[in-house]
Amino acid sequence: MKIYVTSVFVDDQQKALEFYTEKLGFETKNDIPLGESRWLTVVSKEDENSIELLLEPSSHPAVPPFKKALAADGIPAASFSVDDLEKEHQRLQDLGVTFVQAPTSFGEVKLAVFDDTCGNLIQLVQLA
């Protein structure tokens, strides 16, 4: 068994697609219309066969309070790994991405957290 897809709830799928592709550098894997929403997934350009990230609409009534509570408590909705956190932090800042936690070392792990503009905090991780 292996993970095929995971998701983040987004307020606006098109806005999320633009952020995740144009700022973060993912590429679109699936964009299938499903009525008012889309089956919209992105993957890493470094591994097109990797786990897909579903940009899932926040339309279920339980989602907005859940997302708001996570963000208020500073809890990331997802975590992505990078090889060089300082370099990625600077690249994203240069693109206008807002960080709520600058790169910080926790032993052999470095973390940073940014706002994805779609209602989520996303954590970047550099492992030793």
Would you mind describing this structure in some detail?
The structure is a single chain. By secondary structure, the protein is an alpha/beta fold. The chain contains 3 helices and 8 strands. It has helices spanning 13-23, 63-72, 85-94, and strands spanning 5-10, 27-34, 37-43, 52-57, 78-81, 99-106, 109-115, 121-127. Strands 1-4-3-2 form a 4-stranded mixed sheet, with helices on one face. It has a 4-stranded mixed sheet with strand order 5-8-7-6. The protein is globular and about 45 Å long.
What structural class is derived from the secondary structure elements? alpha/beta
- Number of extended strands: 8
Instruction: Give the terminus-to-terminus CA distance.
Output: 27 Å
Share in helix: 10-25%
DSSP helical segment count: 3
Radius of gyration equals: 15 Å
Shape: globular
The multimeric state of the shown protein is single chain
> Mean pLDDT, as a whole number?
96
The ordered H/E elements are EHEEEHEHEEE
Sheet with the most strands, sense and barrel status: 4 strands, mixed
Sheet-strand content, in percent, reads 35-45%
Strand line-up in the sheet with most strands: 1-4-3-2
Query: What are the segments in which pLDDT stays under 50 over at least 5 consecutive residues?
Result: none
